[in-house]
Amino acid sequence: MGKKSVLVVGGGLSGINLALEQAEAGNEVYLVEDSPGIGGERLLYDKDSGTVDFVSPDLKKVKSKKNISIITNADIEKVEDGDGKFNIRIKKRASRIIEEKCDDCKACIEVCPINLWDDEDQGLSFRTAIDFFNQVDSSYNIVKETPVCQRSCPVNLDIRGYIGLIADGRFEESLALIKEVLPFPSICGYVCPHPCEDVCNRGKVDYPLSIRDLKRFVADKEIHDHTKPKQEAVKPEGKGELVAVIGSGPAGLTCAHDLAVLGYGVTVFEALPRPGGMLAVGIPDYRLPRDILEKEIGAVTALGVEIKYNTSIGKDIAIEDLFSQGYKAIFIAVGAHKSLGMRIPGEDAEGVLSGVTFLRDLNLGSPVEVGKKVAVIGGGNVAIDSARCALRLGAKEVAILYRRSRQEMPASDEEVEAALEEGVNVEFLVAPLEVLSSDGKVTGFKCVRMELGKPDASGRRSPIPVEGSEFVMELDTIMPAIGQAPDTSFIERGFGIELTKRGTIKVNPDSLGTNMPGVFAGGDCQTGPWIAIGAIAAGKKAAKSIDIYLRSLAMQ
Amino acid sequence: MVEERKRYILEFTDIPKERQSVNELPVEQRINNFNQVDLGFAEDAAVEEARRCLSCRRCLGCGLCLAECDKDAIDFGQADEMLDLSVDFVILTHGVERVYTLPSEKFGYGRYVNVATDIEFERILSDDGPYGGMLIRPFDGEIPAKIGFICTEEGGVDALNFAIHEAMMAKKKVDSLEIAFFCPDEDAYVKELERNYDNIPGITVKRGVVKAIREVQGSKNLCLEWSNKGDVTEEEFNMIVLSMRPQLPGYIVELAKELDIDINELEIGALLKETSKKGVFFAGTM
């Protein structure tokens, strides 16, 4: 029997003793611990000597053993079992202390201004941001993990950093810090549903920070004060390779921006006459002014990105022709613009207009007509936007019908608040049964009241109709806004890109690559309807993957 | 205040409290136009709002330690490392982290400062603990004369052993200490206590059910009410220690799942044994 290798997970007392046992037997031992140091503090009874005392693990011995490698601060990322061996990938988190140089003088602890309760001491004392983990072990660790807000942000924006700069009045530097990651600070400052504010620790004291509005403040300031951006957009040197981006929404434009910065030639194909995707045709002007959108998209085209409008892939150009036209890679970011139907009788009557179509027509300047009495069906931001727009167009009564309660409503809280303030009537726990019409025109809506039952797969309580509670609403316009799906008809026509069961584009989540080499996809068309910052994150990821793909292509 | 990763965050009094509000277009001016509704922050409001950030009280990168360290042992730029290993065996153990189920509310843990868990008490007794090994009550520094140990049902008989050793250790530190053990009127508990009984002079064992604990105003002592076969008795203690049920840290459970091991196999306290997965062992002792 030759030497074996053993992984011991857990650097507590029993882990240390087992590691020593294995090492004495001549095996190669890896002792892995999640905490910054090994040790463990449990009191034990030493049965052999009959004395009562703390039985401390023999740290000196375990550290001096040549065939024991101690890996602390470690996450086990992957375990694979193959050919009688276990293949293990371990991430050792940076402790920010160079162990060989540290002489355990504690000077750093004395000067650290941060004060937190000591979790190692079960919260009975204080410690600094320097984790002096275990006095016996003397392992130091500077707690510098990513703050919760940054972790919740799909693009991992350094929120604490740019907010700190605002607090110091350093507005330009703050914006420059945002722009290092985010090409559209203004747009996000206006419309981001701010997942960061939901997790903000300040919310546990009183209210979370207004992170989005702070971002908007520095972005607005550049526009209003006409200050020059810290970093002037420089047109990068061309690399020659061309990339086609399908769709000029947040995903597509971010990808185009990042690739242009890297020096690639990018053409964006846009089916509509305006750039911006859902930002342009889904979000009303009172939430995102047109000049803000145009200014930030202008910064992308200034990098040399060309946008071809009114060019629908699959209609005006076949997707497979893009390769023969010289494009080396394709990023599909067509969004999710196809409205889902209510699947109830009478749906095709005149006066039924999906929320997405209504908002698109309105934003593109096409003539839209709303009646006097409008009902919007759904609980998301599209429903709220549609209702608030209908009100602005002169509708006298606007109601939102939602089949669950306020708690389950996916729309952001402040949007719902604003809608209520403006006089939108939100009816909770109501579901449509049938569209009533005469001469093909909508006259009303047959609805039923609902009650909440047990939680479903999504964790939300599913609504159940209340028997005998049917009622009729008199209406002249009905706007379903109950969800969207990507329009993938251009793919279904035979290009061979795999779709998921949900009708979204199937990708490798690590690279966003589809089953076709050189074709990537991201944003709403891959995730289903989600938030702009999520699409921006996808655009960034795709740009990275496309860069790697094109460089590996060039090497062959 | 505790954040997600169970680290405490302190409040500072020099940061503004109120959330600053943004300017908004009045509701009556919103009809028949699509003018911007949210008008954003004014400059002074933005600065005030930004000052509300708690920075989450982690390292801010201020660099004071860096300047202080003459050994140049601090490296802010240090990156995470990835290591790939290939091993023949995997042994899962409990690790350093201590996780336990919270005790029943009637014991007042979290409400009364002198009700501690056995793990907290171990920290208090420990030389590298918060009080340098001195047996004092949390926060007010009094030396307890009378401590009640409660063997909770959550903790079970397994946790009893640990509490007994803590009691012995405490007696070693304060000779005159009076200790009472409250345990359910069940043979398993009593047997376990009797086995160690001789080692702890000055300990009394009380069988029965702890009904409630209330804090005595001023002294912050604890009045414990327990019943044995219908007889209800009250007694005052300087401190109460609760025995808890230890649990496996989440990452060990996750790892076991990834290795296709039924988590029911991972029994706390179990000695080293091979799991149903060949080559993977588990040791449940602390």
Please, could you describe this protein's structure?
The complex is a heterodimer of chains A (556) and B (286). With 556 residues, chain A is α/β, with parallel strands linked by helices. Chain A has four domains: 5-92, FAD/NAD(P)-binding domain (3-Layer(bba) Sandwich); 148-224, Alpha-helical ferredoxin (Fumarate Reductase Iron-sulfur Protein, Chain B, domain 2); 242-329 and 486-555, 3-Layer(bba) Sandwich (FAD/NAD(P)-binding domain); 339-483, FAD/NAD(P)-binding domain (3-Layer(bba) Sandwich), CATH 3.50.50. Chain A has a five-stranded parallel beta sheet with strand order 14-13-12-15-26. Chain A has a four-stranded parallel beta sheet with strand order 19-18-17-24, covered by helices on one side. In chain A, strands 20, 21, 22 and 23 form a four-stranded antiparallel beta sheet that branches. In chain A, strand 12 (242-246), helix 10 (250-261) and strand 13 (265-269) form a beta-alpha-beta unit. In chain A, helix 7 (185-191) packs across helix 9 (211-224) and helix 14 crosses helix 15. The radius of gyration of chain A is 29 Å and the shape is globular. The two termini of chain A are 45 Å apart. Chain B is α/β, with parallel strands linked by helices. Chain B folds into three domains: 1-79, no CATH class; 90-96 and 247-282, no CATH class; 102-244, 3-Layer(bba) Sandwich (FAD/NAD(P)-binding domain). In chain B, 21% of the residues lie in helices and 24% in strands. Chain B is built from six helices and 16 strands. Chain B has helices at residues 43-51, 64-68, 118-125, 156-173, 187-197, 250-258; strands at residues 23-24, 38-40, 81-87, 89-92, 99-100, 115-117, 146-150, 178-183, 203-207, 209-215, 222-228, 231-237, 239-242, 246-247, 273-274, 280-282. A five-stranded parallel beta sheet of chain B has the order 6-13-7-8-9. In chain B, strand 10 (209-215) and strand 11 form a beta hairpin. In chain B, helix 3 packs parallel to helix 4 and helix 4 runs parallel beside helix 5. Chain B is extended. At the A-B interface, strand 1, helix 1, strand 3, strand 4 and strand 6 of A face helix 1, helix 2, strand 3, strand 4 and helix 3 of B. Strand 1 of chain A pairs parallel with strand 4 (89-92) of chain B.
